[in-house]
Design a protein that fits this description.
- It is built from 5 helices and 3 strands; from the N terminus they run ααβαβαβα.
- Strands 1-2-3 form a 3-stranded parallel sheet, with helices on one face.
- Helix 4 links the parallel strand 2 and strand 3.
- Helix 1 runs parallel beside helix 4.
- The relative contact order is 0.20.
């Protein structure tokens, strides 16, 4: 992951300032994105989010009925926040991994 060091440092700084709390609705605050997530989650059981940040889109998918969620991000702080949000919200069926594109090879 050395190639991503500068980018990871930037996102670690951004996500290090993130507050955690309850995720109660499917709404992401943008109509087109809500429609896209509705389409993505319809009849889907599993979702992968490469570049998941703090996992918000995965949590919104979970609230739409998906069961298995894999989040990958180069920011270890983003992943830690995602795991804290999962814990706070009592969400199940999530796996979060800090890493880059090399993590995709481990899935298949």
């Amino acid at each position: 992951m050395a190639d991503y060091k500068r980018i990871a440092e930037h996102w670690n700084e951004v996500f290090g300032k993130t507050e955690t709390g309850q995720i109660k609705t499917t709404d992401v605050g943008h109509d087109d994105l809500n429609k896209a997530l509705d389409w993505l989650c319809f009849n889907s059981e599993s979702i992968i989010d490469f570049g998941c940040g703090i996992g918000v889109m995965l949590f919104k998918c979970c609230l739409r009925g998906t069961k298995i969620h894999k989040g990958i991000d180069i920011s270890d702080k983003g992943i830690r926040v995602a795991m804290e949000l999962q814990r706070i919200n009592n969400f199940e069926g999530f796996t979060f991994t800090a890493g880059g594109v090399e993590e995709l090879d481990k899935i298949c």
